[in-house]
Design brief:
- There is one protein chain.
- By secondary structure, the chain is mainly α.
- The chain contains eight helices and no strands.
- Helix 3 runs antiparallel to helix 6 and helix 6 packs antiparallel against helix 7.
- The two termini are 26 Å apart.
């Protein structure tokens, strides 16, 4: 769980850098192949990270944690479907545009469902804050990151795109870091709200 949360957060934090490095090479076979490899890696790490959050909420908000976790994972899975469609661009120009906008049913079955990811992140963030199962900045980061996510991904707003990756990356990295530093004397189902965090330590 600790490795998954830290790894997923780290990948999100490096997204702005990799996007900058890949600029102008979106149609490159190498770039498309790399994204095809990284996307499933994101998914595997996200599942572990979400399990970590649901573990924190097991005693105080079990149902809300499971709902938020399920929404988060389902939304990210839809994102992988969108990426798979985008890989067709290397074979047929404008493939994604034709599939998503030329066929309304495809749009309705893929893109709106992708909103489940930010909704799930917001649910998890609110639940962590209400249940006080982790230091409050983690919940705040999940909420803010979830709000920025659709603005950046759907609205193509640069600051929101980077902001979502940084905020969510910081949240999941902090969760993983806390699990790594968790003392054996503490309850395995919660993180002390007074624990130091990598981005908020005094």
């Amino acid at each position: 769980i600790a490795v998954s949360a830290t790894g997923f957060g780290a990948l999100l934090l490096t997204n702005p850098v990799t996007h900058w490095l890949y600029r102008g090479t979106h149609d490159s076979v190498v770039t498309i192949a790399m994204r095809g490899f990284v996307a499933p890696l994101h998914m595997v790490l996200l599942v572990g990270a979400v399990l970590g959050v649901t573990r924190l909420l097991r005693e105080r908000a079990d149902v809300a944690g499971l709902v938020g976790g399920a929404l988060t994972i389902a939304g990210w899975a839809v994102g992988i479907r969108i990426l798979a469609v985008g890989q067709l661009e290397s074979l047929a120009p404008d493939a994604m545009h034709k599939l998503l906008f030329g066929t309304p049913l495809v749009w309705q079955s893929i893109v709106p469902m992708g909103l489940l990811f930010p909704i799930g992140a917001i649910v998890l963030g609110i639940t962590l804050l209400v249940a006080r199962a982790a230091p409050w900045p983690i919940g705040a980061l999940l909420i803010l990151g979830g709000l920025c996510f659709p603005i950046g991904r759907i609205g193509f707003v640069g600051w929101a795109l980077v902001g979502a990756d940084v905020l969510l990356g910081a949240a999941f990295t902090s969760i993983g870091w806390q699990f790594l530093r968790q003392r054996s004397s503490e309850s395995p189902g919660s993180l002390s709200a007074t624990n130091s965090m990598p981005f908020f330590s005094k």
